[in-house]
Amino acid sequence: MRSLHGAALFAAFGLGASAALAQGAGDSAGTPPEPVQTCRVCHGIDGVGTNPMIPNIGGQSAEYLSKQLQDFRAARREDPQMTIIAQDLTDEDIKALSDWYASITATYTLPE
């Protein structure tokens, strides 16, 4: 089994992402927080990128995901979409998204 590290995190957020994130990090029945519905456009609800250029983020540590979003927000890391998206995220927003995607168990099948 191997882990894949992504270069970017959550693309395709709408302008209302921060307000939606404030609703919480999902529920105990496995329902994702509202903004994951937007993130899934590129990263999938399970954190698997929808094309080879989109990183797989499901199963990454919450600390890693949080750090990347904080770096995009502070412009210490740049990406045409993510830098803009992260500007409006609060610390609570970043925690909710990081916790959701970190809670996914990622498995990979190696070629034979």
TrEMBL record:
* Superkingdom, natural source: Bacteria
Q: Where is the signal peptide?
A: 1-22
Q: Which UniProt keywords apply?
A: Electron transport, Heme, Iron, Metal-binding, Signal, Transport
Record-linked Gene3D superfamilies = Cytochrome c-like domain
InterPro entries referenced in this protein's UniProt entry, alphabetically: Cyt_c-like_dom, Cyt_c-like_dom_sf, Cytochrome_c_Oxidase_Subunit
Keyword Electron transport among record annotations: yes
Pinpoint the Cytochrome c domain residues. 1-105
This entry's Gene Ontology molecular function terms read:
electron transfer activity; heme binding; metal ion binding
Which PANTHER family does the UniProt entry name for this protein?
Answer: CBB3-TYPE CYTOCHROME C OXIDASE SUBUNIT FIXP, CYTOCHROME C4
Could you tell me what this protein is called? Cytochrome c
Organism equals: Paracoccus subflavus
Q: What is the lineage of its organism?
A: Bacteria, Pseudomonadati, Pseudomonadota, Alphaproteobacteria, Rhodobacterales
